[in-house]
Write a structure and sequence with these properties.
- By secondary structure, the chain is mostly helical.
- Helices cover 60% and strands 6% of the residues.
- It contains 28 helices and six strands.
- A four-stranded antiparallel β-sheet has the order 4-3-5-6. Strands 1-2 form a two-stranded antiparallel ribbon.
- A hairpin with a 4-residue loop joins strand 1 and strand 2.
- The protein is globular.
């Protein structure tokens, strides 16, 4: 895993922190002194030392009085610091650091501790767990100064993949363990699109797809959430890539059909842990630095056969479990659940413990391979590497061990087999939300129609006016909004409140009481533009709430309407200030503020926070978030283009500089040659010309010597002939 991919995960996680902290601009309306559930009620200053207070409730809000801030101003300060730090780290690579992630995690944990019902969502837990893992994954640049790849990166990064497995596998399993008849009957999606909290416009079209397609989509959901996660730990990369694209497909479909804030975007970020460098380079159109030519053809074909067998087995199992058959009469595919709850429960008992062992073997392999990579010849590097590996391997092992407790909540017998020491360790760290249990869409609600609470106000008790919220369904002609990645917390809780009596939602009484008082902070939760609120000039004298049943309109119905509804029942009786029922409900739920009025803090920080609040007041949260997204995306795009142009082309000045350097090098070479020649002359060493002349003279001398020798030979021969003739007397 390259440091580039680690930084991409860190950067995306930083982005989600921007979304979350920016969405928390409603903190004053929800948790302020005039909010629905004031946060200061959660902080009881009993005179204990600060350390004990932080241990009992780990939140930085305990420091508010020391900074001259009340609780809700301190919350706004935390939101502002978190959003600014997240945005800065998104834009500046050097700030994607472990220290920065620790600060973000501590800031959001502080908000979570006092968030009460408005922050108790699974994606808030997921963000906290992911943020803590990023502390282990991200480099420690600010202190150590190096952003290079560390050999233990693969070990800590493995925890991201394990978190993704727990999230997806649990989300699929709970749909069947809940015994919900719609999930077992494969009809859940025929209700889901119109009964989800805040649907999108595309949900209307998805709702009217054929029933056989909706049932087949449920089968596909089981396939992606229960079967595919086992491929996350496959040693064959194409199986991991296949599971990656299946997860991406599911998350994208959820995003376009429902407003689930940052949850699906964060899940997509976790899916990056399934990729390898080769595939990332393929995306970025970069040359792959890994050489795989050493693989034999036989091994490649063997891998192909194994992959084909795995996919075939998974598809065959799906066909058998859900009795998939071609239906020529409906031009589709028929499906039904062919397994029983007992059979699925036996399957769950069979695979839960093996899942743990798969995680153990996979993590052990990463640890062992990382340890051998530290085989450096220098003992100093080897010692430092061993220390780092030991620390991070121990932290990773501890996180994995503690996560087994929430993971085994899926199956009671497996949970009972865990070592008691593991459960005690989980209880110690539970307050910090380091590991959590997951399981979304456990049961399908709204089978008999989407329940929706409509609040009505009146000045005389005769003429009633509906109070319309910005996001949740109400007006039959208003199209469903698109607010991802923002989560309107009040609108979401209105959806949950409609599922039961008002006594299960104590905050609803606080909402009615605040609207009767005309509190502007609470009104901004309903309409950011207060002028759109029907009672913005004068608070209503009377309030009541009714429950309706909503459905999407049919394709051939009135095209100007998205919804149709029928009256169900009274949800909250007619109340007014001083009403006996209202007063009793306030006393019953402890919603009356009996504490003495607190003094207004006028410190410099408090004044600065009030000024910032006045500047952003009236701006919808989703508009603010999309503005931040657009600005950061534009900046990152320009920065990427600048780096690309800088790396691939040379400017005119750069080219001139290169030419000057080349000429200087050539001149330097010529000058060096002349200096060497002069030095050789001073030392009496002949030059090249002199050596050539000398060689020529030597050749001439050699030729003369050869001629003299030839003449001497001829003279000797002549003398020998004369001597022979003389002896013969001639």
């Amino acid at each position: 895993h390259t440091v580039t991919r680690l930084h991409r995960v860190s950067s995306l996680a930083e982005n989600f922190s921007v979304f979350v902290f920016s969405s928390s601009s409603y903190s004053k309306s929800l948790y302020g002194n005039d909010g629905l559930l004031p946060a200061r009620w959660q902080l009881r200053y009993s005179g204990k030392p600060l350390g004990e207070q932080l241990l009992s409730s780990p939140t930085l809000l305990w420091l508010g009085p020391h900074l001259g801030l009340d609780t809700h101003t301190a919350m706004e300060l935390l939101c502002l610091v978190g959003a600014a730090l997240s945005l800065a780290a998104t834009l500046v690579e050097g700030l994607r650091d472990s220290v920065v992630f620790f600060c973000l995690w501590a800031l959001y944990l502080s908000m979570y501790q006092v968030g009460q019902v408005f922050l108790y969502f699974q994606w808030d837990n997921l963000l906290l767990e992911t943020g803590f893992l990023c502390i282990l994954v991200a480099p420690l640049t600010i202190i150590r100064g190096s952003r290079g790849v560390r050999e233990h990166d693969r070990v800590t990064f493995w925890l991201i993949r394990w978190l993704l497995f727990r999230l997806m596998f649990a989300s699929g399993v709970v749909k069947l363990t809940s015994r919900c008849p719609t999930w077992w009957g494969l009809t859940a999606l025929t209700y889901h699109y119109e009964t989800q909290c805040i649907p999108t416009p595309l949900a209307w079209f998805a709702h009217h797809l054929p029933v056989w397609w909706q049932k087949l989509s449920v089968v596909g959901t089981y396939f992606i959430e229960i079967a595919a996660p086992f491929l996350f730990f496959s040693p064959l990369r194409r199986l991991r890539l296949g599971s990656f694209y299946l997860q991406v497909l599911l998350q994208v479909l959820i995003i376009v059909s429902g407003n689930y804030n940052f949850f699906n975007l964060l899940t997509l970020t976790l899916c990056l842990s399934l990729l390898d460098d080769q595939h990332v380079h393929f995306w970025l159109r970069k040359a792959n630095m890994t050489n795989n030519t050493s693989e034999s053809r036989l091994w490649s074909w063997l891998c192909y056969l194994v992959e084909l067998a795995v996919w075939s087995l998974m598809i065959f199992g799906s066909v058998i479990c859900f009795d998939l058959q071609l239906d020529t009469t409906k031009n589709g595919i028929s499906s039904r659940t062919a397994i029983t709850y007992h059979q699925f429960n036996q399957f769950l008992k069979t695979v839960t413990i093996p899942c743990i062992w798969i995680g153990v073997f996979s993590l052990t392999w990463e640890m062992v391979t990382a340890m051998f990579r530290w085989a450096s010849p220098a003992w100093e590097l080897r010692f430092c590497g061993t220390v780092q590996w030991t620390v991070f391997a121990a932290a990773t092992g501890a996180m994995f061990t503690v996560s087994l407790v929430p993971f085994t909540y899926l199956e009671h017998d497996s949970h009972a087999k865990l070592w008691p020491g593991v459960r005690r360790s989980y209880e110690v760290v539970d307050r910090f939300q380091l590991v959590n249990s997951y399981g979304l869409f456990r049961r399908m609600t709204g089978v008999g129609g989407r329940p929706e609470v409509i609040i009505e106000g009146s000045n005389d008790g005769v003429a009633w006016t509906e109070i319309e919220f910005m996001y949740k369904p109400g007006n039959l002609s208003a199209p469903p909004p698109v607010v991802t990645p923002h989560q309107p917390r009040l609108d979401w809780q209105m959806w949950f409140a409609a599922l039961g009596p008002h006594t299960q939602a104590p905050w609803f009484t606080s909402l009615m009481y605040s609207l009767l008082q005309g509190k502007k902070d609470v009104i901004e939760l309903i309409q950011t533009d207060v002028s759109q609120y029907p009672f913005h000039q004068q608070p209503p004298a009377y309030l009541r709430a009714h429950r309706y049943r909503y459905w999407f309109t049919q394709p051939k119905a009135d095209g100007s309407r998205w919804w149709r509804r029928v009256y169900d029942e009274e949800f909250y009786p007619t109340v007014h200030l001083g009403n006996t029922f209202l007063e009793s409900m306030l006393d019953q739920h402890g919603l009356k503020d009996k504490s003495p009025s607190r003094r207004v803090f006028n410190s410099t920080v408090a004044q600065a926070m009030r000024w910032v609040r006045s500047q952003v007041r009236g701006v919808p949260a989703h508009t603010l978030i999309w503005t931040l997204i657009a600005c950061s995306a534009t900046f990152c795009l320009l920065q990427g283009l600048r780096k690309r142009n800088k790396g691939t082309t040379l400017t005119a000045e750069d080219a001139a500089t290169v030419n000057d350097c080349t000429e200087n090098l050539e001149k330097s070479d010529e000058q060096q040659a002349v200096e060497e020649e002069e030095g050789e002359k001073e030392e009496g060493v002949p030059s090249e010309d002199e050596m050539e002349a000398a060689e020529g003279e030597e050749d001439i001398v050699c030729d003369d010597e050869e001629d003299e020798e030839q003449e001497e030979d001829e003279d000797e021969e002549r003398k020998e002939k004369d001597e022979i003739l003389r002896k013969k007397g001639i």
